[in-house]
């Protein structure tokens, strides 16, 4: 940027020499005789060629100053012109950019409107699909109920009058138990549940969580106990240290006693479940408990005890399952497990588990001889682990010494590994098999 004072100084000098030239010319013109003084005043008297000298000096001064000032002025004009062009170019570019932005804004608005319309349409389609799925699921459930009702009719057709009476009494007893169960549990008749080869006069109920009843088709049943994807155990409690076996037995015994006492007194189970955290803290104050699993145990103990008090002695059937795997895997097993189970005789099929038949006699399998287990081993490992915990939760007869009930038999049924990934298949199901007469 140029220094502005120089321009101002040159302009002042130019004006001064111009004034001097004009004054000199005036003085020369006004003089009458050549010898007259050109200027008198302030003790100064100018005579002779002085006016002409002043005229020459003023003219030369003007010419010099003009030659000095003119390039500066031209340079300044060029700079201003250049700045003007740059400003005009910037302004034109800004206008073009603004126009472009405006066009893009309009385009964005159109796209947003289009996306909004598409989302609205997708929302409508999604809602329609949800309704269709709900209707399809409802129709599947209705069809299953119709099939079960038809099976009930067929089964009752071949029953004797005594067997029909026993079945009616049993259903009434189960309904009485359901009335005292909290809403998250239910004992449900399963006419198409597991069947025992060679046995005819029986009825099967399933103890389930109602939250599982609307599992995605193909339906596997609601189930009771659920597992993590590669696990065959459920941790009872969480703390800084692993729960000991002695603590596990104490906790399960406490649940057994509380549930059995409620069953004897026909008290609602919900009160016992709600009080579990405080009840168990006295046993293991340093643990946070898996209340879902412990509630499942309490519900099972309560249901079986209520039925026993009604002189109903069920056989408990436990069956595990596993979903598919993304890739083959193996994990360490603490020890080999020898499991006695009843093999399935139904042809293998990857569909709903209805009407499966199992052998009466037990077979023995061993899992983990190489110190590991895989996905295919999960169904029977899960059933075996649940069987052990259910046995323990029933073993507290000292809690009700004045009540005489028979022991409960357990059967582990061969489980299945399904081909697809579905967390609904990571469960163990618990059935109550009751014979209407002894063969």
Explained architecture:
The protein has 439 residues and is an alpha+beta fold. 51% of the residues lie in helices and 16% in strands. It contains eight helices and 16 strands. Strands 3, 5, 6, 9, 15 and 16 form a six-stranded mixed sheet that branches. Helix 1 packs antiparallel against helix 2, helix 4 packs across helix 7 and helix 4 crosses helix 8. It is elongated and about 155 Å long. It starts with a helix and ends with a strand.
Please identify the oligomeric state. single chain
Q: Counting H and I runs of at least 4 residues, what is the number of helices? A: 8
Could you tell me the mean pLDDT? 76
Shape: elongated
> What is the ordering of alpha helices and beta strands?
HEEHHEEEEEHHHEHEEEEEEHEE
- Outline the biggest β-sheet: 6 strands, mixed
Helical content (DSSP H or I, runs of 4+): 40-55%
Distance between the termini: 115 Å
- State the domain count: 2
Beta strand % = 15-25%
Summarize the structure.
With 439 residues, this protein is of the alpha+beta class. It is 51% helix and 16% strand. The strands form six sheets. Strands 3, 5, 6, 9, 15 and 16 form a six-stranded mixed β-sheet that branches. Strands 1-2 form a two-stranded antiparallel ribbon.
Write the layout of secondary structure elements.
Layout: H1 4-30, E1 39-41, E2 44-46, H2 50-157, H3 161-179, E3 185-189, E4 195-196, E5 202-209, E6 225-226, E7 237-238, H4 245-264, H5 269-274, H6 276-281, E8 288-289, H7 291-309, E9 315-322, E10 330-332, E11 337-341, E12 357-358, E13 363-367, E14 372-374, H8 378-394, E15 409-417, E16 427-435
Parallel strand pairs: 4-12, 9-15
Antiparallel strand pairs: 1-2, 3-5, 5-16, 6-16, 7-8, 9-16, 10-14, 11-13
Helix pairs in contact: 1-2, 4-7, 4-8, 7-8
